Each structure stands twice: as C-alpha cells, then as structure tokens.
Task: structure prediction
Amino acid sequence: MSELIPIDAEGGLLFATALPGRATDFDRDPENAWASLGAGTREAPLWIHLNHQQDRARAWVREQSGLDEFVVESLLAKETRPRFAANDKGLLAIFRGVNMNPGAEPDDLIALQMWIEPTRIITTRSFRFRTITDLRLASMEGRGPATPGAFLASIARGLAGRLAPVVENLDEMLDTVEEDLVDDANAAKAERSALATIRRQAITYRRYMVPQRDAMAGLAVVETDLLSVRDRAQLRLASEQVARVVEDLEELRDRAAVTTDELRAHREAQLSRTTYLLTIVATVTLPLALLTGLLGINVGGIPGEGNHWAFAAVCGVMLIIATVEVWVFRKLRWL
Result:
C-alpha cells in the first residue's frame, strides 16, 4: 500500500507524526523529516518510529535524541526481554509481539522498544508490527492516540490481543495430535514432530510472555503523570490478557508433555513386546539348533547315517521338542 511507504527506508526513519496524527506527516521529504525531529507539545506529542537496524537511525538516537545512555542502549538493543523502567523524564517499555510477517518462524516473537515522555514518543523495531501499522493508519486519519499514556495502552492492548489466536492455533494442533494418536496409535513419526513443534513454541512464547505480563502489570501501577486512570485500566486489562495466555501456554506445555510420555510409553511397549516375542522364538529354536548342529558334524558314528528314514525321524523329534517347549511356555504363561 502506497500510504505505508516509509519516509526514509534506507535511513531508518519510518515515519513521524504529531498525535493524534495528520496525513501530511506521512508524505514528507526525507531530509526535511529528519530535520524536524525534535519534541512535540503536550497537546500534540511527536511520535517518531525508527528501524534501529539502519545506521542513520541509530546515529540519531545516540547523538541527537537527547536521551541518556541507558535509554539509548535499550532502544537500540537487538536482543531484549520485555520490561519497563521509569524515571523523572519518562517511561521505557519493551514488549514482544508475534511476528506475522511473511516467511517468519512460527515461534518468533519480535521486540518493540518505546521511550515515552510528555511531548515525545520514540519507538524502534527491527521487523514490521501489525499493531504499529494499525496505529499508523489511524493516525493518518487523525484518529491516533492523543496522549503518550493512551499510546502505550493502545500498543499493549494490540499486542496482547494478537497473542490469543496464536495460542488457540497451538491448542488446535495439539487436539489434532491427540485425536490422531487415539485413531492410530502407530502414527508416531509425524506426531513426534508435531509435539516437538508445539512444545518448542509454547516454551518460547512463555519465556517472553511471563516478563511481558509483569511489565504491563507494573506499568499499570507505576508512579507517573503520563498515565491516566483510563490508561492504567487498559494496561491492567492487557496484563490480564497476557496472564491468561501464559496460563494457556503452561497448560499446553503440560498436555504436550503428557502426550509425549504416552507416545513414548506406547513405543516402549511395542518394543518390549517385539523383544519378548523374539526371545521366545530364540528359546524355542535353541534346542533345535543344538540338535541339528550335533547331527551336522562331519565325523563318523552319527545315528541313522545311511538310513533313508533318519531324516524323517529327526524332523519328528524336533517337532516333538518344539511342541513340548510351547506347551511348557503356555503352562508358565510366557505365551
């Protein structure tokens, strides 16, 4: 879509607008846009969205944003966990969201870093976020969040809302695996692969969602004038959504573990049964092999040598021995 073209993709300035947004802010000359990156006003805070993989964006954050070193490093970090920090200047928040970009790994959670102060909001990312896209489209129509606190609450709600369908998809995958195991207990190879995928995704999601739940809950009660009562309520609601996701992930992880154990027990039972049958066969044939081995040695004095009925007699003796062995095994309930 043409309206979603970044202002300066190579430099890393995706867009900048005075909230609640103006359509003209998204169609500006790149150099003029970079030059105008300062601070907004309390009535119209400036939202600056950057791709921190680009050198110019990283240089601007380090040298021209006026942020302290801790905030700069947090905004530019490539590997982060969800958390928040507050000081007398503003709020730092780092969230994770599902990577819905084409070709993304199913268990990939990507980071969105935010610095929020009364007159300015700076967000940085490596990959495109659907939640940011939605807010951008709303801002182009002048319907974006009007305050920094409302912006933070909108981001939290958007990210939390997109987690539930992903967990539901994992739950449906696990239901399918369990049904396949009930219908066909021997469908092991494909089911083991599916179970491994489900467990890996559940563990990865939970790794980030637990601190994200805590971060959102902490933001809802942090002492700051940036958040209104409504903003705090929205953050608390987002935290509860993430908490439910965490509970569902823990249930999925435990169910997958139980299903894996059942599958392993079934395979071990099959292996034990096969080994047992092979042992019985070997036990039955061992005396017969000993007898044929003795009769097959190339020395004189073998009983029946030269008699045409000797072979039939040996076969009869072997049949009798095998029959007796099977009867004994059945008597001992080994068969």
